[in-house]
Amino acid sequence: MNTPPSPSGAEPTDGSPVRLGALVPLTRPGWAEAGRHLLAGLDLAVREVNDAGGIGGRPLELVVRDTAADPGRAAAAVDELAGLGVAAVVGEYHSVVARAAAARADALGVPFLCSSAVLDALTEAPTKWVARLAPAQSHGWRIYADFLLGAGRRRIAVAAQPSVYWASGTRILRDHLTPRGGTVVELDTNALTPEALCDALVDHGATALLLLVGHPEPAVPIVRAVRGDRRLAEILIGAPAGQPEFAEWAAELGEDGAGIPFLRYLPERLGPLGERVGKELRERLGEAPSFVAFEGWDTVAVLAEALRSHGTDRAAIVDAWPRVAIEGTRGPIRFCRTPGISVWQWAWTPVQVVDRDPAEPDRFRTLHTG
Questions:
Q1: 287-305 pLDDT, tens digit each
Q2: Which neighbouring-strand residues pair with 242?
Q3: Which of these, 355, 364, 293, 352, lies nearest to 328 by C-alpha position?
Q4: What is the pTM assigned to this prediction?
Q5: How far is CA 340 from the centre of its chain?
Q6: From CA 1, how far away is CA 18, in angstroms rounded?
Q7: CA-closest candidate to residue 8, choices 85, 71, 66
Q8: Cβ distance 302 to 333 under 8 Å?
Q9: Tally of CA atoms within 13 A in the half-sphere of 190 that contains its CB
């Protein structure tokens, strides 16, 4: 007979599983490949925790919900998971979706450890209920802007879609580049065909085009159009949000998808833990793990430590945020209050600007570190 879950997340004593709700984009229009990598990392870490005896002898159990990049669906999932008595909610890749989940978790008093979303304003006001592993967008995208300046690219065009996330990224780039002699012009991909966008790049004399758009549409047709336009042979195409990280990008674009710098949250060299976890993830995924897979593993490792040291009551987990200190796959993880960030934040994961090597598109080159 199954014991009903505790709605408050209070700690039972019958050896029942410690449940974690997992928010993951697994279907379109969500970035399903990112979701698959995130879930692989979460699941691997749960299995390793259970192989080591679980949480005080109780197994960890993931209760997975597909967000499909839908903020409303994510908020409803947090409601459902809270009712199921999960100790905490983890995951999510899309920033706008994670923001909706964070707001609901804050309202309900459910701990939410966000794995991969970077939007600075994850919650409208400071909250004790939410913590985050991924770096804030303002941190990573300033590093990307410094890379552009170092590469001599000062006339920047952004091909953007309407979104809080893309608008935030454009603002960060403009605020950082303008005082340093750069310019940023916005091109609306909803109003311009890829061919018209190429004409606009020529008219503006842009030296770099940043793809602040969804994948595969309209990112893939834009890249193909720019690569095929002889007038734009010298322009740098960039994708700070990380679209080229995944194998799907290389499969769709081939050589055209190489040489497009993006942000990646990995150290230049993984330590022994990262190497071991990376090998396990590669076997599970059947391909090289992205940084998102490592974010998933680190998420569960952090929560497992919080659960072991502070118990499975939701309030106790929240009390653990500033006290947890573990070795993650990408370095030591601790949370703190960071100016301008409303949640408990790991400040910071390693940040790289990398691209796919044009001579060997399956190999990544590190171009800049922050």
A1: 999 999 999 999 999 999 9
A2: none
A3: 293
A4: 0.94
A5: 19
A6: 17
A7: 85
A8: yes
A9: 4
